Amino acid sequence: MSKLRLTVSMWNNWRINWKKLKTKLIFVAALVGLFCTVTGFANANIQDNSHLLEHTTKELIVAKNDRYWQTGEQPQIIVRTLDRLDKLTPNNLAKAKRTVFIVVGTKGKKRNVQIYSSKDLHGAFTADTRGSIIRSQSEQLRSSSKAEFNKGLRFVFRACATTIDQQYQYSFDKYDLTNDERSQITHPHRLALPIALALVIVVAGLYYFFRRNFHPKNRAQK
After folding, report:
1. Residue 128: predicted pLDDT
2. pLDDT attached to residue 164
3. Whole-angstrom Cα distance, residue 189 to residue 140?
4. Suppose 133 and one of 90, 93, 101, 159 were both cysteines; which one would form an S-S bond, judging by CB atoms 3.0 to 4.6 Å apart?
């Protein structure tokens, strides 16, 4: 009888201890989840000093850099926002390796977006490449709308990621630009060309009209 009581007592103690342990495990798991959620956007690849980045933009930055972390080269794309329009060059740029910086300077409603790369990526991120990426989204990047600005910034980030993936011959994923989106960079002025041609025709027509009707020789003949 005493053995039975001892067994029951041990069982009850085990159940109580297990419940306590289970409660502690759930609490620890919740803390870990909260920590990951909070620190996930306090990531070294995100430095949002101006509080411009939307949740979707941060998710994109973290997700793509997490994929890069699994590669042998481990490149990274760092996005920074600063409360100034000039002096945007990262201080650690000269020492950085396999790194691209997207730096956003902001003052009031003005925005200045620049792309910088470490020396080992200069061949992929030439001045023309960086300029074409930014020009392709110039309207969105100048927008005072936070949502519109973030849309343009996400495109810039994905364009940089696509360039890195091409450089290291990684397989393209859902974060890279599509073929149609890449054409916006390689042919940024394609849509403006017809308008430019129309303007040339209009100017030529006006020149011919005024020359024909208001030139001194033509007026003297009349």
Report:
1. 95
2. 97
3. 16
4. 159
Which residues are CB-neighbours of 77 under 8 A, at least 6 positions away? 45, 61, 64, 65, 68, 99, 100, 101, 102, 157, 160, 161, 164
Q: What is the DSSP pairing of strand 110-117 with strand 46-48?
A: unpaired
Sign, CA torsion 85/91/93/98: negative
What is the structure's pLDDT at 113? 97
Q: CATH code for 44-192?
A: 3.10.310.50
Q: Report the pLDDT value the prediction gives residue 109, as an integer from 0 to 100.
A: 87
Residues 168 and 171: their CA atoms lie apart, in Å, by 9
Computed from CA positions of residues 86, 48, 63, 42, in that sequence, does the dihedral angle turn out positive or negative? positive
pLDDT at 186: 76
Alpha-carbon distances, residue 95 vs 73, 91, 116, 120, 189 (angstroms): 16, 9, 13, 11, 36
Residue 14 tokens read as: 């085990």
Contact (CB, 8 A) for 125 and 115: yes
Q: What is the pLDDT of residue 184?
A: 85
Instruction: Give the integer Cα–Cα distance in Å for 102 and 157.
Output: 7
CA distance 148 to 159: 17
Locate the domains of the chain by residue range: 1-40, 44-192
d(CA 81, CA 74) in angstroms, rounded, equals 23
Tokens of 171: 């397989």
Residues of the chain with pLDDT under 50: 28-30, 32-40, 188-193, 195-196
